[in-house]
Design a protein that fits this description.
This protein is mainly beta and 150 residues long. It is 13% helix and 36% strand.
């Protein structure tokens, strides 16, 4: 990314996609969850205490469902995709494994060249090194619980 684009993100003048955030995190040597403020040693994360990030470009909101930061093996988050929302313009990959559960709505998960339409109650587990992309092609918002393991 150009320095001016990164500066625009820092000042809230640009809204990166989820995949752009993943790439920035990789470049910084951190995980996507580490963009959220760390929650010390809390084991309970209350609804009103969740750190959240909204991406206008992706039409998505990400909420941390638990503690994040260095040394965390799991990073649970809730991703809400508005109709037409997506994790990025193209599939992306990162380290570790991912588990996802469709909590509400329907989503399209692209894993490399395979496309899977998932509905409420469906789940997927895959190595995150496989290029992947989330998309809400439905008329209602979709909520996915995603747990990344590192």
């Amino acid at each position: 990314f150009s320095p001016s684009f990164v500066s625009q993100i820092e000042r809230g003048q640009a809204s990166p996609s989820i995949s752009s955030l993943e790439r920035l995190a990789q470049a910084l040597g951190v995980t996507l969850g580490e963009f959220f403020r760390p929650v010390a040693t809390a084991r309970v994360t209350r609804l009103g205490e969740r750190a959240e990030l909204t991406s206008a470009w992706s039409h998505a909101q990400i909420e941390a469902l638990g503690p994040t930061g260095p040394g965390r093996a799991l990073e649970p988050m809730m991703i809400t995709l508005a109709p037409g929302g997506q994790s990025g313009g193209r599939p992306y990959s990162h380290g570790g494994d991912e588990f996802a559960f469709v909590f509400e709505g329907t989503v399209r998960l692209t894993l490399d060249a395979e496309v899977h339409d998932l509905a409420r109650g469906d789940a997927a587990t895959f190595p995150a090194e496989i290029p992947h992309r989330w998309e809400n092609a439905g008329p209602e918002p979709a909520r996915i619980v995603v747990v990344s393991a590192h």
